[in-house]
From TrEMBL:
<dbReference type="InterPro" id="IPR003509">
    <property type="entry name" value="UPF0102_YraN-like"/>
</dbReference>
<dbReference type="GO" id="GO:0003676">
    <property type="term" value="F:nucleic acid binding"/>
</dbReference>
<dbReference type="Pfam" id="PF02021">
    <property type="entry name" value="UPF0102"/>
</dbReference>
<dbReference type="InterPro" id="IPR011856">
    <property type="entry name" value="tRNA_endonuc-like_dom_sf"/>
</dbReference>
<protein>
    <recommendedName>
        <fullName>UPF0102 protein GCM10010873_04100</fullName>
    </recommendedName>
</protein>
<dbReference type="InterPro" id="IPR011335">
    <property type="entry name" value="Restrct_endonuc-II-like"/>
</dbReference>
<comment type="similarity">
    <text>Belongs to the UPF0102 family.</text>
</comment>
Length: 117
């Protein structure tokens, strides 16, 4: 039961984050986009820039952040590269990788360009 509950909590968190980006004028163009390298939770656009968003949900923002592993980041990079192959500027497209943390109260903290660190 906990697996199903976790799945639904993750899905609800993705919905909240998608609404957050949409309200800020950065339209979500894909949800749970899947390539051969892996899945990207959300993809948004801010003008010509493509934003790849990994959503992590847990009791606190700190606990949510702990769920992101280097292996997962590598998969997201691989999938993002596949997505960019379909863009007009290909790999030269301006991109950003955000991590959106959602706590048990539904509060969202977005770490913009999180993978640059």
């Amino acid at each position: 039961m906990s697996g199903a509950r976790s799945y639904h909590a993750g899905f609800a968190a993705e919905d909240q984050v998608a609404q957050f980006y949409d309200r800020s004028g950065r339209a979500v163009c894909a949800r749970r986009w899947r390539g051969s390298a892996g899945e990207i939770d959300l993809i948004a656009r801010d003008g010509a820039e493509v934003i790849f968003i990994e959503v992590k949900q847990s009791k606190t923002h700190a606990m949510a952040a702990e769920h992101l592993t280097p292996r997962q980041m590598a998969r997201i990079y691989g999938a993002a590269s596949e997505f960019l192959a379909g863009e007009p500027s290909g790999q030269m497209t301006d991109v950003r990788f955000d991590v959106a943390l959602v706590d048990a109260l539904g509060r969202i903290e977005v770490l913009e360009n999180a993978y640059a660190a």
